[in-house]
Amino acid sequence: MKTRLFVSFWLIGILITNAQIFDKKYFNEVLDTLTSNSFAGRGYVEDGMNKAGDYLQNEFKKNGLKSFSDNYAQSFTFPINIIKNATLKIDGKELKYGTDFIVKPSSRSVSESKLAFYTLNTKEYLESFQSKEKTKNFIIKDDKLQKAKNIILPPLATDVDSIKKYYKQWANIYEKNEPENRAIFRFTSDKLTSSLSQRQSTISEFIISDKYYSKNMKMNDFSIKTELNPSFLAKNIIGYLDGKNNDSVVVISAHYDHLGKVGTTIFPGASDNASGTAMLMSLIKYYSENKPEYKTVFMAFAGEEAGILGADYYVNHPLFDLKQIKFLVNLDIMGAGDQGIQVVNGKIFQKKYNDLVKINSKNNYLKEVKIRGESCNSDHCPFYMKGVPSFFIYTLGGK
Ligand SMILES: [Zn+2]
């Protein structure tokens, strides 16, 4: 009981802006460094991710962390399709990557070609959902018309979520059809959210804000440059501090990688997850000056945005027995927290969650400590799947 309360108190200690515990200056220093241009969005170009890893190693060392081998790095490799550059002009206007358009992460290289354009008829597409017959006819017609052409998928005017979702995947059906190096231009009112792919497709897709769509637009100046790296070398950065009791281990984790840079557009990833990494470093600083109750291992993971790859590698190559881990707390997106925090796995480890709520209401740290069930959406997941008790905490509210 005492133990549980202590661990929980320590969790809340992470999140409060108590000057004694939380060194805001150091937090900002780490945040500013990780989001600086020289780290190129901590991704796959200009060695951004590995430069960030080197910086963290140095900070681990400065704060006196011990390591499991002669350094803090745990290297691993994975395939990644790197979008190096993408350009697009519509009616002579150059669109900006990241805000006006993005490309599907599995895209292959493509450049302006002599291929004709085919525009999908969205009216017929929507009508095709009315009957099986109409669906069949539409698919046959579309398949015939799209052959060996660049494809325009206009914005879709519907409120039906399932149809919207289906439309997003529509481009996939063209993938196996054509050997030509062609492009799809899909217009959408959705927020443009970049991600990463570990494979390269046979087709390239531009995803464009619908405000650039018009019936007679001219789109003859476009390019995507990608490179599939079959074994990108990344590293988890791992160190620890001895506690007053070293039989059990507490782990705090955060991923430090982000999406990187496409052309001149940098994705700095301040929220996701320079903030969590800065929180991790702030805790390291605090506990290096105030001996923790338990041996505490700090893990900064790489490759999260490509599919939680760093944490996944770790649990299959652990540096000590996973059974020793009393509890793991993963931090991914540590914003202002003015609306409180969300606790993923709170419903699974209900007693620990209840302790958090109790301590919070007693001390009035946060507006709310919200509960969620399990969700495989960050680095805690591979640990949880291996039976390690864990929370994933993120803040709610402002940036
Ligand atoms: Zn994240």
List the SSEs and their pairings.
Blueprint: H1 2-15, H2 24-34, H3 48-62, E1 73-90, E2 93-94, E3 101-103, E4 110-111, E5 117-119, H4 122-127, H5 132-146, E6 150-153, H6 161-170, H7 172-175, E7 183-188, E8 204-209, E9 221-241, E10 245-255, E11 260-262, E12 265-267, H8 270-289, E13 294-301, H9 309-316, E14 325-331, E15 341-344, H10 350-363, E16 369-371, H11 380-385, E17 390-395
Parallel strand pairs: 5-6, 6-7, 7-8, 10-13, 10-14, 14-17, 15-16
Antiparallel strand pairs: 1-2, 1-9, 3-8, 4-9, 9-13, 11-12, 15-17
The structure holds zinc ion (ZN).
Zinc ion binds next to α8.
Count the E strands: 17
Figure out the total of helices: 11
* Uncertain spans: 1-9
CATH class of the largest domain: Alpha Beta
- N-to-C order of helices and strands: HHHEEEEEHHEHHEEEEEEHEHEEHEHE
Return the domain count: 2
Instruction: Give helix % range.
Output: 25-40%
Strand residues, percent: 25-35%
The whole-number mean of residue pLDDT values reads: 92
Anisotropy-based shape: elongated
Structural class: alpha/beta
How far is the N terminus from the C terminus?
35 Å
CATH architecture of the largest domain: 3-Layer(aba) Sandwich
Write out the CATH superfamily name of the largest domain: Zn peptidases
